[in-house]
Amino acid sequence: MSALDGLEVRRTTTAQQLADGLSERIMAGAFGPGDRLRESAIAAELGVARNTVREAVRILELTGLVRYEVNRGAVVIAPTPEKVEALYTARERLETAAVARTPRPEQLAAITKAFDQLVDAAATGDKNRIVDRDLAFHQAIVALLDSSRLDEFFAGLTQELRFYLTVLSKSETPEDVVAEHEAILDAIRLGDRDRAVAEVRAHVGVSVERLKALLAARP
Questions:
Q1: What is the largest CA-CA distance in the chain?
Q2: Cα–Cα distance between 148 and 151 in angstroms, integer?
Q3: Confidence category of residue 9, pLDDT binned at 50, 70, 90
Q4: Which of 73, 124, 159, 193 has a CA that sits 20 to 30 A from residue 31's CA?
């Protein structure tokens, strides 16, 4: 008899499925910054246990999309210039360190493939798909660091980055997105590491400034 007899492996829990669904609603704007996620109301409407909702909300808290406030409970994050700066500084540090390295052929191929998929997504005009491919391109860049721990760290940032990229998608065209990423890829292909670092910094800097402008325009 094996010590693993009777153990069932499930692909995802109900709480994770719920967290994914709530995340999609937040990205789509169904829940705005500062909105409360009322656990009892969500549980009643969806017919799930309140403990399941609480676990889902905790998952969202770990991704940075939700935070707990005293006397209010779980609320959708309200972006601030400080939060934007902190997140994008972490992203810039990782990616500039990555493009300062010379990619192996298979790494360059992975980045090129990710860019081609971004171009395909841009052609559809589907903002969610564009954001997905955008993140995949940058994940491929971070992979140049040859560190599974850093890969995991960046993957952990992607949920919060997805939130901000979704916000940005309302103010930039698919053509803008492709052009900025193509400049980074061209520098990497040419082996011009200084230019690649500069392009990443410029790309991140433009994103931060656009986000700050959007935040400043909020009522």
A1: 65
A2: 5
A3: very low
A4: 124
